[in-house]
Amino acid sequence: MSYGKAVRDELRVPTRELRHAIPQVYAGYKELHDAALAPGALDARTKELIALAIAVSKECDGCIAAHAHAAVQQGASPEEAAEAIGVTFLMNGGPATVYGPRAFAAFGEFYAERASRTDGRPPAR
Questions:
Q1: How far apart are CA 61 and CA 99, in angstroms?
Q2: What are the C-alpha distances in Å from 29 to residues 23, 26, 33, 41, 69?
Q3: Is the pTM of this model over 0.85?
């Protein structure tokens, strides 16, 4: 079962339609997104891992897919993703034991895809 690509694919068309209906709202959200995830005292990789953990706590499959992909793009390792997800067990209890594996599976999908594009080597940090 796919928890990354399938969720992103499922949301692509309705998201596009809503974005066309309320473009200014999406533009404002993009500004907030870009500002919040820009490197600062915390690097972008760490921020994406935080976002992934929050996505698990909020039980949001679309957020999980987006931030699992972004964490891979920022060079996060499976070990880092697993530990970030593990913190959600502490903070969110039982529901995190359901959404955490989904997040780890989504991360794994994107990680494997990126690794296959880099000749089998893990993504660079």
A1: 8
A2: 10, 5, 6, 22, 19
A3: yes
